[in-house]
Prior knowledge:
This protein is of the alpha+beta class. It is 38% helix and 22% strand. The chain has a five-stranded mixed barrel with strand order 1-2-3-5-4. The longest helix has 21 residues. The termini are far apart. The protein folds into two domains: 60 residues; 52 residues, CATH 2.40.50.140.
Amino acid sequence: xxxxxxxxxxxxxxxxxxxxxxxxxxxxxxxxxxxxxxxxxxxxxxxxxxxxxxxxxxxxxxxxxxxxxxxxxxxxxxxxxxxxxxxxxxxxxxxxxxxxxxxxxxxxxxxxxxxxxxxxxxxxxxxxxxxxxxxxxxx
Length: 139
């Protein structure tokens, strides 16, 4: 029974990377090991619950989120800001830029190629694609 829980929580952790699945995986592994010494299923379940409670308390004390919260993006103020090219792009080829720590698809109308690491200015956003121009001059 515990081996099934280990496998299920392992797959859930690998898919979602949430701390709750990390705790459940550790608890199910500890209970699986404990089950080899304890025959009573009631005591095994009680140990599992104690392990889970201890894991959750540990997360709270470390101020770690139990679930990974997806970030919401407000890109209204992004136009005019500076991004950094993370995949080269030119007028014919779409690339990518890094803005506020995230990588976004990008297109440019510039005649020249924008190389990785080049600073670019965001001129407009359509859907999830940033339109950028290169050769930023310090003002």
